[in-house]
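debug: dumping io for the single-chain case to check the tokenizer round-trip. Nothing else runs in this session.
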Amino acid sequence: MRKVKGFFFLMDALEKLPPETAAKMKLTLAVKITDRETQARIESLRKTMAGIRVYDGYTHEDLPEILTDVQLGIVPHLWEDNLPQVAIELKAYGIPILTSHLGGAKELTLSKDFCFRAGDVEDFNEKLCAFTANPERLGEYWLGAPKLPTMEEHIEELMKYYPG
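debug: decoded output
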């Protein structure tokens, strides 16, 4: 729920979604909820959204269950995260990602439609609404997207710079 990771930005944006868009969306959150105010905000969203699943944190082993039926991952960080682990995990599971323009997550696709200006609720919601109205567009994430390297490929690349 840290601010720099964009959790509260996400809450603000979801609360401002057009009702017809929110009513079509099912949200999965994997985050430790640490205060009553945030819990109340999530409960309020339950009234407007098609569904909400909340996982009180997660481990790597929980990902297959958590990501069941997830069609779009959201990585709304507000800082220059150069190694966005969550974004990499989502992509590895075959899930396209809507991310802010800060940090490395935006480098996981070539499509600008999957990147919004960090902290800009209007830009975020515009992009999210477009995918909700046209879910077939989620496939555009993969057009020309860089492949995630295997561990062996990564080591081979590193050895070019650190031989011996």
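debug: round-trip ok. The longest strand covers residues 26-30.
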